[in-house]
Design a protein that fits this description.
Oligomer: single chain
Helix content: 55-70%
Distance between the termini: 67 Å
Number of helices: 20
Order of helices and strands: HHHHEHHHHEEHHHHHEHHHHHHH
Strand content: under 5%
Largest sheet: 2 strands, antiparallel
Structural class: mainly alpha
Number of strands: 4
Length: 444
């Protein structure tokens, strides 16, 4: 144990083995909900729920252990909420990609982030995109998954004729009342700051759903984990289905979201742990970002969407976690959780949807950092965060935000504030939006 303490620098960071173990258990408890929520979202697009649960736990376990060993920070990694919804509802159900093709997008965006980290260009990307748009991307994804939570629960839908485009469904079915009860329970537990509030809510709501007949116990329920999603990715489907330009912009849009989400989480949690310097920089962040980007690749390659560093890591920090040993504990617990993955079949949409609504709220709080009253930042941010959920597309929301931000800067005579990368990407997005008009003029 002395070797472990020396390797993870226990004394240097003012911690001990017992504290790190307790912190790891706390972090795992508050994020274990992803083992059932991620498969629930992906199953809407036809991905096997049991296999997705096993792969979710497997990748989270291995990636989090890697974060602890190579990064030596108390950060945990798992499938990212928001991006999994983009994969299921935006890429597969919306854009028509195959599940393997959508996972190919994730693999490629993870590789792109990895390259940025290795060549040291992450700072350039961070400087190019204004803070208002970074925050708007996070808020937009939050609204996106909140919207999906209500759709999956049957509380809002698109009526026949499409007028209005979306309407509220007054509760009349048992399933809807189970969802509303689960949502109320989740809000109460969360407001009372009960640890593992989302996990407790999912378990209780699932039990209620089974008791009242909303969820039946599958006759073919097995006790053996399935790993059939592993290796189910296709790098070519996205280009053949969407075309080169749209494919590149789609990958770029998801990369931006993944990249900024990680940077915000890592810097925020490190600061809370007292591990950042006076200027808010995180020593050794390159290893952290490298593990995180490779986790995105691994998530796509395993067929369960991008994996990213979790803000729930702050729960372990609050318990005193200060080193990578906290992450190792979390990772080992995720690996043990693989044995429970077949139980994901028992969890209905009405039990996971309340968690999506609450997580959507948490991401929505980023709006406080956006100067919404300033047209230069507020209007592009508004387009970004509102078009994402309404169009079920990150690409549309980010593209509209980028183009409008550059346009406003130009007319205000502030060309010096526009980074060349913003020019290049905005032009590409403009071509994306005008593709149907441009196509007839292109050679066959």
């Amino acid at each position: 144990m002395e070797a472990v303490a020396n390797f993870f620098k226990f004394s240097e960071r003012g911690t001990d083995l017992a504290t790190e173990v307790r912190a790891g258990l706390t972090t795992f408890m508050v994020m274990a909900y992803i083992i059932v929520v991620n498969p629930s979202i992906l199953s809407a697009a036809g991905i096997d729920k049991t296999a997705a649960a096993a792969a979710t736990a497997l990748v989270a376990g291995l990636a989090t252990i890697a974060m602890g060993v190579f990064g030596n920070y108390p950060f945990a990694i798992a499938a990212g909420l928001g991006l999994n919804a983009v994969v299921a509802f935006g890429l597969i159900l919306g854009a028509g990609l195959t599940p393997a093709g959508a996972m190919g997008v994730i693999v490629m965006e993870g590789i792109a982030i990895t390259v940025l980290v290795l060549i040291g260009l992450r700072e350039a990307v961070m400087e190019a995109v204004p803070l208002s748009l970074k925050r708007a991307i996070g808020v937009g994804i939050g609204l996106f998954i909140l919207f999906i939570g209500f759709v999956n629960a049957g509380m809002i839908h698109s009526p026949e004729g499409g007028v209005p485009p979306v309407e509220f469904v007054f509760p009349a079915t048992t399933a809807q009342f189970v969802f509303l009860g689960g949502l109320a329970l989740t809000i109460v537990l969360f407001a009372m700051k009960i640890r593992a509030a989302l996990l407790i809510s999912i378990v209780v709501t699932t039990v209620v759903a089974i008791a009242v007949g909303v969820q039946t116990i599958p006759s073919d329920l097995t006790a053996t984990p399935s790993f059939s999603t592993l290796g189910q990715f296709d790098l070519g489907n996205v280009f053949s289905k969407l075309g080169v330009l749209v494919a590149i912009l789609t990958i770029f849009s998801i990369m931006l979201s993944d990249f900024f989400d990680t940077m915000g989480t890592v810097t925020g949690v490190a600061a809370e742990a007292g591990l950042a310097d006076e200027e808010g920089r995180v020593p050794g962040i390159r290893n952290v970002l490298l593990v995180d980007s490779l986790a995105a690749v691994a998530g796509g390659a395993a067929g369960i969407s991008s994996n990213t560093t979790y803000i729930e890591s702050a729960a372990g920090v609050a318990e005193g976690g200060r080193t990578g040993f906290t992450s190792v504990v979390v990772g080992v617990l995720f690996l043990f959780a693989i044995l429970l993955s077949p139980l994901a079949e028992l969890v209905p949409f009405v039990a996971t949807s309340p968690a999506l609504v609450v997580v959507g709220f948490l991401m929505f709080t980023l709006i406080k950092d956006i100067p919404v009253a300033d047209v230069e930042d507020g209007f592009p941010a508004m387009l970004t965060l509102i078009l994402m959920p309404l169009t079920f597309s990150l690409t549309v929301g980010i593209g509209a935000g980028f183009i409008s931000w550059v346009l406003i800067k130009v007319v205000k005579g502030k060309l010096s504030e526009v980074h060349w990368l913003m020019w290049a990407v905005s032009i590409a997005f403009a071509i994306y939006f005008l593709q149907d008009w441009i196509k007839p003029y292109l050679p066959a």
